[in-house]
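Input (structure):
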């Protein structure tokens, strides 16, 4: 919607800025741009790169990044603004609207000749949004959600971000309508619902399918705006908030978007350009691992919304990010399996194969009739949340493939441009999800080990010698630094094994050690308490019985409150003396009155009567107790042992108590001879906002004498958390010229860490040895569990050696066995070994090792999934028939793992492989035939450059054109066809 010449125009400006610049600095830069009126209420948003890859590279070299600001500019100054230094691009701020279809601009109420624009492509079409076709409960039953509920899965632990007009929730505002809202973009999240309650309709529909999911309120626009007027810049801010939150704690896992543009004329650039900043931000979210769903739109050709104008029907109704390959594009049908006539039709402007599928609309939910493709999109988001609560590893690409594969066809067989793959189903997708979870549980273990498979022994020995040296001063803190999955825990266990060898007595060659997982105690007070309990528990297990008794006795004596004990002794002796005197007086009186013979008896009787009478007084109970037990000192009440299990928040006297404990534990024959070695692991596994607090809690103990602390952490992650916590101190602690964005965090860590050991990446030879060690792990477990299985396996191999296939060998052994279960397990083991020993399998695994950053954890996961897919192929006879090729299975899994955007693009167009290969060939030609300086370029080379530029017009091709790893791999996929890819994709959905 371009403004008239000279009138103010809302715009989004991309500008270059130094990395790590504060929002206030960016705002100042924006305000200094002539002719541009910056919006101070819009926080600048970073974007990954400019559309120009060469410019992006130059920005990277200059230490700069691209950020988005918002404001207004006179329409006749827009081109001049784009040419300003530091401005990368200027875009109009696109108006957006909800895809709900009951309102004044809706041109249909019922099916009639006047309402129908084009014939229904999949008759009969539903063009009556005002009449619900069942309730939300009916929709849940139709989709099979109720069957998943019965299995105990209701969307728990899944958070859905509702990007819409806002939500109200009872916990935040009186009369709030939507439960389970836990946070949001704006400070007043959960308090405002604009767009006529459209966002609350979407939230209701999500929870109707996944009742125990939780919600984020990502409201657009600001509450200062009125009605349903909204702008895409607000959506950019909402997506950035979701991305930042996901990086912090893994939520939201899903974003549902029931809005978009109705006409291309609203913004022709956004409608068709994949490089628009919002579309790039949506791709950022998908790359982060967030599952993004968009409503297809309400401009289907049969009975379109009145807002569509002439943009309706096939190829003219799905615009911008709503039709991007990285998202799920959701059309609409009703529970009677009728296509809704206004559901937008593909192909989309950015993807030929849209919509992906349909979901359900036109039912009684929040409103008397929840309508539009927005209601359908929200129902689909609920289905994804339900499946993700079963399998937490369900990601964007596999979720989309799963829903498309299990959709119920209502149009032509397969995919069509009107209904996509059909109407999604919840229950039919469950077996594939649960099969993947069950199968994965039998894979390689990710448990830490003291077995050296990565060449860590030398590191462990050196650190152990440092700790054990008599010349090492304590306290000492050693950081074992490495990214996630690189073996920090295993190295720490190896150090512990050397510092405290098994069967070596404590103080006679073994140090007292404690292994502590910080992430289990993410509160500071809980961590202090738990640390003391772990020291007592773990060190206690390293001591003999006599040593344990001695430790507890010395600790009790050290904690004894001697002053209080002395007062109690004096008090008890005073009372005893008083009783003796009273007794003597009573006896003397009785002797004088009664004579010596009866005095003793009457004295005893009188004392008893007096005791009973005293019991009726206010202090009688206590005095009575004193008479009966004057010497009961109750020693336990004077021992100051903090009750850490009940009073985890109590820090007073903690340090003194901890030092006392360390003094006793490290004593041996001389205090400090055997330092206590405390291993604190998984600091970077804690939620990022809490890492800094936990570091502070640990810091309380780090200066304790005669302790060595070994911390397992990714220094970059921990420093970033500290940086975020003390951002306000950056100007005070860091020089103005310092470009290190983690300077404060690093300085903090430097103060508490004396030795920083960064685990080196394993070289290729060592990593190949690690791969070999992985291959035998599962087989060893099988043989150890059941000798009968091992015997059956030997028989199968013997028959194989005589020339029989594995399948025939298994059947022959089965015919002679009385236990089919043992034969099945043996057959599985033989199949696995055959795969592991094959040259193709080893070649794929070795290539994967170099493409997965030499991460042991990632490689194990890759081997697990590839083994599982290969075994499924074997069981179904797909390898023998040639339907599935083992190396191709591995290469495609590697593409899925390392280049997910390429994998998604291949599913709709496998020709991208050929185009990338052509790019690599042309690049090599240009490099080989580059003319000498001063020599004109040959015409042939010029033609090659032109052809290369044409290929690079595809943004995915451009993104991957300089990946050397991909250049090595792609020739393996040269013969891949769409049909073969579909067959392999089926396995990817079952075992990802």
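Output (sequence):
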């Amino acid at each position: 919607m371009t403004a008239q010449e000279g009138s103010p125009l809302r715009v989004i400006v991309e500008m270059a800025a130094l990395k790590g610049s504060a929002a206030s600095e960016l705002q100042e830069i924006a305000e200094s741009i002539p002719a541009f009126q910056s919006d101070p209420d819009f926080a600048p948003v970073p974007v990954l790169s400019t559309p120009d890859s060469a410019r992006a590279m130059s920005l990277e070299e200059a230490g700069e990044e691209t950020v988005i600001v918002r404001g207004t500019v006179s329409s006749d100054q827009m081109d001049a603004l784009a040419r300003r230094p530091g401005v990368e691009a200027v875009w109009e701020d696109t108006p957006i609207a909800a895809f709900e279809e009951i309102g004044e601009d809706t041109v249909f109420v019922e099916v009639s000749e006047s309402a129908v624009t084009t014939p229904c492509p999949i008759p009969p079409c539903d063009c009556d949004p005002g009449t619900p076709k069942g309730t939300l409960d009916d929709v849940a039953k139709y989709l099979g959600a109720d069957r998943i509920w019965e299995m105990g899965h209701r969307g728990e632990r899944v958070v859905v971000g509702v990007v819409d007009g806002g939500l109200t929730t009872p916990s935040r505002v009186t009369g709030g309508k939507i439960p389970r809202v836990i946070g949001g973009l704006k400070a007043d999240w959960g308090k405002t619902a604009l767009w006529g309650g459209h966002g609350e309709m979407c939230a209701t529909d999500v929870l109707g399918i996944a009742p125990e999911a939780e919600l984020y309120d990502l409201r657009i626009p600001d509450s200062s705006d009125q009605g349903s007027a909204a702008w895409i810049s607000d959506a950019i801010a909402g997506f950035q908030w979701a991305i930042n939150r996901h990086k912090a704690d893994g939520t939201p896992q899903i974003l549902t978007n029931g809005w978009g543009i109705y006409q291309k004329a609203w913004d022709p650039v956004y409608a068709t350009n994949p490089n628009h900043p919002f579309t790039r931000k949506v791709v950022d979210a998908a790359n982060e691992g967030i599952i993004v769903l968009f409503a297809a739109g309400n401009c289907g050709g049969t009975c379109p919304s009145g807002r569509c104008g002439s943009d309706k029907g096939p190829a003219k109704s799905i615009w911008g990010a709503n039709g991007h390959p990285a998202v799920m594009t959701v059309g609409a049908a009703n529970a009677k399996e009728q296509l809704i006539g206004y559901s937008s039709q593909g192909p989309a402007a950015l993807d030929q194969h849209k919509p992906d599928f349909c979901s359900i609309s036109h039912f009684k939910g929040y409103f008397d009739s929840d309508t539009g493709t927005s209601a359908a999109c929200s129902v689909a988001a609920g289905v994804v949340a339900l499946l993700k609560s079963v399998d937490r590893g369900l990601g964007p690409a596999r979720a989309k493939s799963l829903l498309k594969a299990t959709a119920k066809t209502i149009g032509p067989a397969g995919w069509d441009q009107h209904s996509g793959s059909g109407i999604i189903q919840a229950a039919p997708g469950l077996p594939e999800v649960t099969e993947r979870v069950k199968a994965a549980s039998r894979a390689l273990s990710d448990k830490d080990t003291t077995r050296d498979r990565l060449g860590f022994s030398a590191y462990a020995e050196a650190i152990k010698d440092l700790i054990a040296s008599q010349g090492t001063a304590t306290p000492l803190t050693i950081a074992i630094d490495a990214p996630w999955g690189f073996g920090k825990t295993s190295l720490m266990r190896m150090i512990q094994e050397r510092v405290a060898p098994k069967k070596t007595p404590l103080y006679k060659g073994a140090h007292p050690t404690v292994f502590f997982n910080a992430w289990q105690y993410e509160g500071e007070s809980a961590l202090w308490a738990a640390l003391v309990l772990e020291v007592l528990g773990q060190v206690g297990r390293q001591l003999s019985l006599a040593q344990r008794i001695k430790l507890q006795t010395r600790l009790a004596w050290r904690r004894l409150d001697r002053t209080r004990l002395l007062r109690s002794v004096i008090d008890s002796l005073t009372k005893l003396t008083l009783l003796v005197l009273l007794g003597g007086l009573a006896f003397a009186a009785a002797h004088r009155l009664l004579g010596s013979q009866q005095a003793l008896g009457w004295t005893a009787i009188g004392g008893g009567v007096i005791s009973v009478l005293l019991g009726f007084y206010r202090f009688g109970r206590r005095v009575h107790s004193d008479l009966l037990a004057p010497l009961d000192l109750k020693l336990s009440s004077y021992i100051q042992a903090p009750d850490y299990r009940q009073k985890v928040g109590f820090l007073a006297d903690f340090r003194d108590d901890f030092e006392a404990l360390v003094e006793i534990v490290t004593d041996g024959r001389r205090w400090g001879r055997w330092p206590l070695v405390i291993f604190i692991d998984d600091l970077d596994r804690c939620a990022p906002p809490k890492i800094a607090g936990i570091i502070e809690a640990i810091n309380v103990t780090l200066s304790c004498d005669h302790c060595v602390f070994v911390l397992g952490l990714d220094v970059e992650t921990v420093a970033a958390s500290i940086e975020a916590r003390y951002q306000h101190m950056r100007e005070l602690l860091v020089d103005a010229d310092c470009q290190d964005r983690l300077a404060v965090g690093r300085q903090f860590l430097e103060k508490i860490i004396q030795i920083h050991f960064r685990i080196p990446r394993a070289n290729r030879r060592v990593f190949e040895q690690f791969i070999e060690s992985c291959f035998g792990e599962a087989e060893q477990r099988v043989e150890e569990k059941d000798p009968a299985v091992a015997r059956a396996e030997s028989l199968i191999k013997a028959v194989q050696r005589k020339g029989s296939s594995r399948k025939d060998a298994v059947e022959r052994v089965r015919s002679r066995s009385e236990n089919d279960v043992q034969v099945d397990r043996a057959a599985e083991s033989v199949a696995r070994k055959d795969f592991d020993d094959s040259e193709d399998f080893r070649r794929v695994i070795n290539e994967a090792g170099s493409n997965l950053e030499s991460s042991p954890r990632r490689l194990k996961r890759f081997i697990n999934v590839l083994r599982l897919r290969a075994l499924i192929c074997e069981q179904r006879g797909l390898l023998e028939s040639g339907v599935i090729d083992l190396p191709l299975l591995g290469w495609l899994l590697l593409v899925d793992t390392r280049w997910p955007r390429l994998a998604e693009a291949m599913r709709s167009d496998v020709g991208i492989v050929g185009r990338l290969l052509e790019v690599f060939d042309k690049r090599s030609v240009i490099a080989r035939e580059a003319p000498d300086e001063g020599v004109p370029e040959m015409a042939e080379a010029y033609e090659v450059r032109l052809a290369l530029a044409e290929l690079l017009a595809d943004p995915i091709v451009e993104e991957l054109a300089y990946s050397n790893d991909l250049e090595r791999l792609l020739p393996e996929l040269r013969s891949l066809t769409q049909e073969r890819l579909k067959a392999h994709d089926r396995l990817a959905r079952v075992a990802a």
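Notes: The chain has a mean pLDDT of 76. The radius of gyration is 36 Å.
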